[in-house]
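Input record (one chain):
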Amino acid sequence: MLHAIIMAGGSGTRFWPSSRAKLPKQLLPLAGAGTLIQDTVERLHGLIPLERTLIVTNTRLTEAIQRQLPKLPANAIVGEPCKRDTAPCIGLAALLVLQKDPDATMAVMPSDHVIDPTESFQNALKQASSLVNEFPDRLVTFGIRPTSPSSNYGYIQQGEDLPHTHNESPVHRVAQFREKPPVDVAKEYLSAGNFLWNAGIFVWRAKTIIKALAEHQPDCLNHLQRIADNWNTPDRNTIFSEEFAAIKGVSIDYAVLEHASDVAVIEAPFTWDDLGSWSAVARQRGQDEHGNTVVGRHLSIDSKDLLVHTCDNHLVVTLGLENILLVHTDDATLVAERSQEDHIRKVVAELESKQWHEYL
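The corresponding structure, as predicted from the sequence alone:
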């Protein structure tokens, strides 16, 4: 059966001051009325039931996620004791899923992407699942047709065509994974026409990914296996903390995908945004006739090209401003030129250096 694994451990520091350690990006309603993680779970409705959904996050977020997803079984939320990147996250999820379903297929996805329409996304997951059912050792990933020479994403080079029906999305063997390139190299990829953005969404058999980890990351898998073996014992939390901390953090791309011999990439038939910065909120929310994107109560006078994010019970007034990012929260306000938004992480680093942890 098809199981959903939702990775929800990110910190979202680029969205400070709205995003905090205890309420990061994936728990915020940045793109619409629902939070990003609520939208991710809802996107699976009708394809994968809640009882086959597993969310892997960190320990400090488990209660907040449970509050946002009250229909999700409490044991469907796993809180990692420390950050160790995506390979340990996915490996542990695979071992836990296998305890319930020895023939499980996993659809692995981040919790903070914006994808539309849902029907196209679900059809793509079905296509990937069919590929895996036909070739159980195959790993399937999704690529996004680039719209610009972005240096913010990893790239997937398409190889030979693989069979698909006329109503399915194009699928190719992966020729190579490429890390985030400089802009000039990204321009070459765009011109070549056979490179896709790496969406970080995967489908594979749980047994297959465990077999791959055993081959390429045996130490990591040994620690994960000890955690899984003690999952339903009184020693679970102690073993989890000790063994997980002993793992060297590594991404699933480095750990497995770049070494695997049978990886297919489906060109996504849906629109996709990883919501990597405040500018992405403007893309999702749109602008008024003056180029302003506003969330909350705002009075604009002779102001244009603003991004204002506040709440309904706090009025923000701008007078004669242009190209400004203004984010108001209960205890902190950010005002910056929009061209400087890539440096918000510097703000977070400075707050950390001053030990102003109440603002993080």
